[in-house]
Amino acid sequence: MSNVAFLFLGVLAGGISGLIGIGGGIILVPVLIFVFAFTQQQAEGTTLAAMVPPIGALAAWVYYKAGFVNVPASLWIAAGFLVGGFFGARLATTLNPEVLRRVFGVFALVIGAKMIWG
Length: 118
Hints:
The protein is an all-alpha fold. The protein has one domain (3-117). It contains 6 helices and no strands. Helix 3 (40-50) packs antiparallel against helix 4. The longest helix has 22 residues, at 71-92. It is globular and about 45 Å long.
C-alpha cells in the first residue's frame, strides 16, 4: 500500500482516538487486517511500533524481532495519528457528552462485530 494510505489511516485513527478517547489499537489493528491484509501479528506489531513513544516500546521490539513490524507503515501511521489526534480531540471537546458516549458505544459494537464475524 502507499504511504499516503498509511498516513490517512493514522489521521483517521488519531481523529477517532482523540474524539472518543480509545486507544489506536482498536482502530488500527482491524483496519490493517481487513483493509491492508496484514496478519493479526503484523497488525499488532505495526500498531505498537506506530505508538511506541508513550506505550509500546518493549512490546513493539518483541514483534519487530519476530519479523512482524512493517516499519515504514508504522512511521506513516504515527505521523497521521499525531495530526488526527489533535483534530479529533478538538472536536470531542465541543460535543455533547451524551452524543460522544453514544458514538463511542456504536463504534465499539461495530468493531467488535467485525472482529468476531468478519
